[in-house]
Design goal:
271 residues, alpha/beta, four-stranded antiparallel sheet, 19% strand
């Protein structure tokens, strides 16, 4: 089993935590958008409180370890690896509870090229433990606003992990997947599950709009978030998101494999 010390060293070495690639400018811009109520930063969350940029800096400093100094406006962001390890422990503990209860789960990502392997490992282990891994709305077309205007994508599942695809690429794993922060995919999936009168998830696992969109609708959600994703941490602070793991969500996909092993071992789900 990977020790917490070895995990911490990996996080820093792979720049999943410690000094990360996410720029301070990008994070601050997202905080300004969030404070202004811009849907691009809210990603499905409807904050109960008024969050200023200063409030967000304080929250992100507490939850991630980024600098809370408003005068720090450039350079790269920093995530405290000890906070990442602690959050991964909580994440794993919740997975273990779900497995023990054989809870239905829904898993989705806005980072399919980076994180499908991480989530796919969780889906495989949860399924083996008897948890129904739900795949509602498979193939559904969803219109999503992008910087190029509204684009229509299809909801697909790979290894039990939902993600968005360009129309017409079914079954071609080498085709590029769609990076999105939108909450529309999880809303569509949950709506389809309800309409089919099938099981609803007792736990939603993912990132971006998958977590915020589910949490806003009252579903328990846990996930991963970078320093430029304040919505997940606000959702956690306001009680609509259970666990958020602070880390860089856009490094090489193989760098997340030790995290999968660590989480599954701690959750007693290793296969």
């Amino acid at each position: 089993m990977l020790s917490s010390g070895a995990l911490r060293a990996h996080l820093v070495g792979a720049r999943l935590a410690g000094s990360i690639a996410t720029s301070r400018e990008k994070s601050l811009n997202r905080y300004r958008l969030f404070a202004a109520g811009d849907p691009r930063a809210l990603i499905g969350l409807e904050p109960a409180g008024d969050w200023s940029v200063g409030d967000l800096l304080g929250l992100m400093g507490e939850r991630c370890g980024v600098s809370a100094d408003p005068a720090h406006i450039s350079g790269t962001d920093v995530i405290d690896p000890d906070r990442t390890v602690a959050a991964l422990n909580a994440f794993a503990d919740r997975l273990g509870e779900a497995a023990g209860e054989r809870s239905p789960v829904l898993i989705g990502t806005g980072h399919p090229d980076r994180l499908t392997g991480f989530y796919g490992g969780l889906a495989d282990a949860l399924s083996a433990a008897g948890c129904p891994v739900l795949t509602p709305a498979y193939g559904m077309s969803i219109d999503i606003m992008t910087r190029f205007g509204v684009r229509t994508y299809n909801l697909a599942y790979v290894r039990g992990v939902a993600r968005m695809r360009e129309p017409g690429v079914w079954g071609h794993l080498g085709e590029p997947e769609i990076h999105t922060h939108s909450p529309l995919p999880v809303r569509s999936a949950l709506g389809a599950a309800a309409d089919a009168c099938g099981p609803l998830p007792e736990l939603v696992i993912g990132d971006h709009g998958w977590v915020c969109g589910a949490g806003q609708l009252g579903f328990e959600a846990i996930g991963l978030a970078d320093t430029d994703d304040p919505a997940l941490f606000v959702g956690q602070a306001e009680g609509r998101v259970s666990v958020v793991v602070p880390l860089d969500d856009a490094v090489r996909s193989d760098y997340y494999r030790p995290l999968t092993r660590y989480v599954l071992n701690r959750a007693c789900l290793s296969q």
